[in-house]
């Protein structure tokens, strides 16, 4: 079975093609036959295309025009033409899976995409304005290029559908619950994948484990996972809640928003921009939303960059502490995504706060760019894992499972 995965972001579209045996699914993540990416520049007039295949063939091009659908269609064209050809024709693709950030209360698990599903994903765009519309563009691009091929929506919110009401419901008026205002949580595909991979690495039954997974990228969230189910998470009704992030504020006193609306003549649009695009590491440091650039500024003695680091670590430790309370214990702490996988300093700083629990990180292992490894010392009471998140493979697995049920 050939499974194409599209992972849409606000400024990029990642794609990959997997070949999975029809009657069994591998335990280990296979290498994709083909991987493609479209990056859109800020003026949206230019798309940077990057393609690579399992055999080592590569392609880099810049193409012009404002049509995202056309850019995605061109990316798919490279599957069947030129040096990056891996299949003879597009109809060889059996199913296409899409990462969709917000599924609301309607979608608690992956679904085959219909016109009704597309309509509901569109209706939820106000809750994930940078992501749901991009996913819809990808879905429509596939319809244009592949016709009536089966398409599947895999929701970032789905894994957190198991949150107990006490964790999911906000302490506002009960009418909010009836309006669907609740904690949905995000990065669910990544959290779910990493929990399963952690069980493999530890050679333990997932149902026996208490895990905290730290997805630390430009967006950041934690999940408390017990018996393979999400029981608490830091992101909320939207991906803006929780930890301090690259350019998002994370949790703040809602009274600040009331104050700004009353005293500073902020509009909803300005608040949205400030909280999502001009806060977090970028807002505090004044340097960048990118942690390595903030670290470089710290090395030059930049006070605001140091403050941004200190705040980021403080919020991360506080979040881990709250997840510990939800789990009533911990077997393993998992770091993943760009910062989680690549920043030994953040891992060290986060772990140091929990030495009183007997958690001990091995400094040498931590510095050696570990992936899918345990970096705790032999006598640590809690394991510390660095896992390369494989969202695309997790999406492909869910597509395969749905196709078995058809």
From TrEMBL:
The listed locations are: Cytoplasm
- Any one cellular-component term (Gene Ontology): cytoplasm
- Major place of residence: cytoplasm
CDD domains per UniProt: ASKHA_NBD_AcK_PK (cd24010)
What does the record list as GO biological process?
acetate metabolic process; acetyl-CoA biosynthetic process
Sites binding Mg(2+) sit at 7, 391
Residues involved in ATP binding: 14, 215-219
User: Which pathway is this protein engaged in?
Assistant: Metabolic intermediate biosynthesis; acetyl-CoA biosynthesis; acetyl-CoA from acetate: step 1/2
- Please give the function described in this protein's UniProt entry: Catalyzes the formation of acetyl phosphate from acetate and ATP. Can also catalyze the reverse reaction.
Describe the family membership recorded for this protein in Swiss-Prot or TrEMBL: Belongs to the acetokinase family.
Record text on subunit structure and interactions: Homodimer.
What is this protein identified as? Acetate kinase
Query: What is the scientific name of the source organism?
Result: Anabaenopsis elenkinii CCIBt3563
Task: List the gene name.
Answer: ackA
